[in-house]
Every structure is written in structure tokens, then in C-alpha cells.
Amino acid sequence: MKRIATQSISQNDEQEINQKKSRQGRRNDKQLTFMVDYMVQHPHVATGKFRTINGKNDLEGSWDELVQHLNNLRNPGVKEKNTKSWKESWRDLKTKVSKKASVLRNSRRQTGNKHIQFNELTEMDNKVLGIVGFDYVEGTTCPDSWPEELDNDVEQLANGDIRY
């Protein structure tokens, strides 16, 4: 017998579904600065990781609190953004800073008699990198899954000598 999972839809989600898609308001510098400072103070929101049993609810509550503050900082006449849009703004900011750091790193690695033009990272960029970590930008190293060859390894295995 198959069980059918039912999903409850909140009132806000239902309103979003029924409304015509309209452009959300654009973020300003005050909102961006506040968001980065909030993420520094609340790293669990930035990473999206749960710490407790009710972590998902706590995380959603933190995002709702952040969204309320960010929408209060909007310019007059600009539409409010919902939680989904602010999460996308955070994702886009992380991607932008990551690409900027990657270009900077690659420019510094170039050799030759070329003059290199690049913009240094701003204080905000460094805060974002501190939040997401340098592994997000540079990636992680993955060891080879195949062991290195040893001298006389076939003979050693044939003699029953298994040392790695």
C-alpha cells in the first residue's frame, strides 16, 4: 500500500501561487550591508545548517526576521521582497564574490611581462568569504582513489606481503 504525502501550504505560499508573477524590488546598499552583517552574526542562517531538533523552524524564523528588517530598509516606492527573493539575493552575492575572488586568484598566478588589471576585494567581499569559507571559492581537494604504484608491487602481492 502506498502512502501519499500531503503537504500543507501556508497562507503566504498560497498568496504567492495565486498572485501574478511580478518583479520584486531591487536591493539597495543599506540592505546588502545589513544582510552581510546579519549573516556574520548568525552564521547558521548563512550556511542553512540546523543545530537543534527544531532547527528548520529556527532557521525559517531567522530568515523571516531578516526579511522584515531588510524590507524596512528599502527605498521609498520600491516593492518588498519575499523570503525566496532574499535567499536568491544571498546566493547571487555569494556567487559574485566567489567569481571575483577566483578571477583575482587566477590573475595573481599569471606570469610573464603582462600588466595585470584587477580589483581588490572590498571589506564586504572579505566578510562574505569569511562566512562561506574559502573552500566554497577554491573547492576542496579530493585524494586519488587509486593507490600509487610501488616498486615490485606485483611480486610483493604474490608473496603475500600486503602493506599500504
From TrEMBL:
The keyword Transcription regulation applies. InterPro entries: Myb_DNA-bind_5. Keywords: Transcription, Transcription regulation. Residues 30-101 form the Myb/SANT-like DNA-binding domain. This is Regulatory protein zeste. Involved in transvection phenomena (= synapsis-dependent gene expression), where the synaptic pairing of chromosomes carrying genes with which zeste interacts influences the expression of these genes. Zeste binds to DNA and stimulates transcription from a nearby promoter. Self-associates forming complexes of several hundred monomers.
